[in-house]
Amino acid sequence: MTCTFCQIIERKIPADIIYEDEYVVAFRDKNPMAPVHVLIIPREHIAGPLAFDGENSELAGRLIAAAAAVARQEGLADDGYRLVMNQGRHGGQSVFHVHLHVLGGRYMKWPPG
Ligand code: AMP
Ligand code: ZN
After folding, report:
1. Which of 16, 26, 96, 109 could lock 40 by a disulfide, CB 3.0 to 4.6 Å apart?
2. Looking at residue 21, which CATH number applies to its domain?
3. Residue 76 belongs to what domain range?
4. What per-residue confidence (pLDDT) applies to 113?
5. How far, in Å, from the CA of 29 to the mean position of ligand 1?
6. Is 99 assigned a catalytic role?
7. Global pTM value
8. Which tens digits make up the pLDDT trace of 11-52?
9. Are the C-beta atoms of residues 101 and 29 closer than 8 Å to each other?
């Protein structure tokens, strides 16, 4: 088992888990880019957004729904937040277990870097 995020799900390495349900786990990013920076991951190991298909795409919706629950829990509902899912080198992906970034607590610039 070499996937860091699978190890977080299995409680083999520590993380600040703030939400979980049958399908997803959410924890604080160890290198936060905003006052609130949470990662939401499916319990199933999926390499990245490119690996979503007709069989597993329901989990993409589960990630977004969990992000809404986390946003409410973290007080982001009124001012808003940004969701980011990186794929591959140009996307800036560094962990190859798909994850949805929830960023909030400050104004987000557009376009992103
Ligand atoms: P990405 O660059 O989209 O693949 O995002 C990976 C994110 O995972 C980065 O923001 C890292 O700071 C974060 N990260 C990596 N390892 C851990 C960990 N063990 N606990 C919490 N966040 C992590
Ligand atoms: Zn994994």
Report:
1. 26
2. 3.30.428.10
3. 4-104
4. 85
5. 6
6. yes
7. 0.98
8. 999 999 999 999 999 999 999 999 999 999 999 999 999 999
9. yes
